[in-house]
Automatic annotation (TrEMBL):
Keywords: Nucleus. GO terms for cellular component: nucleoplasm. GO terms for biological process: regulation of DNA-templated transcription. It comes from Ciona savignyi. It comes from the Eukaryota. This is ENT domain-containing protein. The lineage of its organism: Eukaryota, Metazoa, Chordata, Tunicata, Ascidiacea. Signal peptide: none annotated.
Length: 192
């Protein structure tokens, strides 16, 4: 067998590409090792110590470690293998504890967009229409209110912004997806 020439660069990798390839190999090695340990069963002190040594040798951050553990815990195939090797005993408890977030996720506020006001207004109109349907009322074409069933004793408890005009609802029904926001503005705030 001929000797391997270590001085040649057959892949033509520069230093940056070599560093990236090495980092990829390190991450894959850690991921594969953690996968094998998860498939063996419950996390114990020996496995935890081995993972600690691998983290320091391969430069794996605590966040990356926890993400890999969560990936392994949520893998259905690994869970099936671990349960079958441990005679059906649940063996994910310690792994789940190991993969928990260090701090809780932040609560995100409801997004407010340019169309939030329009969406709220249309939702209130729809709620008013639904309320009238629940009460057995409907509106005819000439905007006269008619009652088709007897009024129910229980009134809905939600608050609805009063409807400005019946015509507004009819105009909004004629709009389609190609309507611009400028066209919608004139329906929300009609010129006086």
């Amino acid at each position: 067998m001929p000797p391997v020439n270590c001085h040649g660069n057959s892949y033509n990798l520069n230093e940056q590409d070599s560093i990236l390839a090495l980092r990829q190999f390190e991450l894959e090695a850690y991921s594969s090792t953690l996968t094998a340990l998860r498939a063996e069963g419950e996390l114990n002190d020996e496995k935890r110590e081995l993972l600690g040594h691998l983290q320091s040798m391969l430069g794996i951050t605590k966040e990356r470690h926890k993400a890999e553990v969560r990936r392994a815990v949520n893998d259905e195939k690994l869970t099936s293998v671990a349960c079958s090797l441990n005679r059906g005993n649940p063996c994910a408890t310690e792994w789940e504890k190991e993969g928990r977030h260090v701090m809780s996720l932040p609560i995100r506020p409801t997004p407010i967009t340019a169309n939030t006001q329009l969406a709220d207004y249309i939702a209130n109109i729809t709620a008013m229409e639904n309320r009238n349907i629940l009460l057995g009322r409907y509106r005819t074409d000439d905007n006269e209110e008619s009652i088709t069933m007897e009024d129910r004793e229980s009134q809905p408890t939600w608050d609805v912004v009063p409807m400005k005009k019946r015509k507004l609802m009819n105009d909004l029904n004629k709009l389609d997806a190609s309507t611009s926001t400028l066209d919608l503005e004139k329906y929300i705030n009609p010129p006086e």
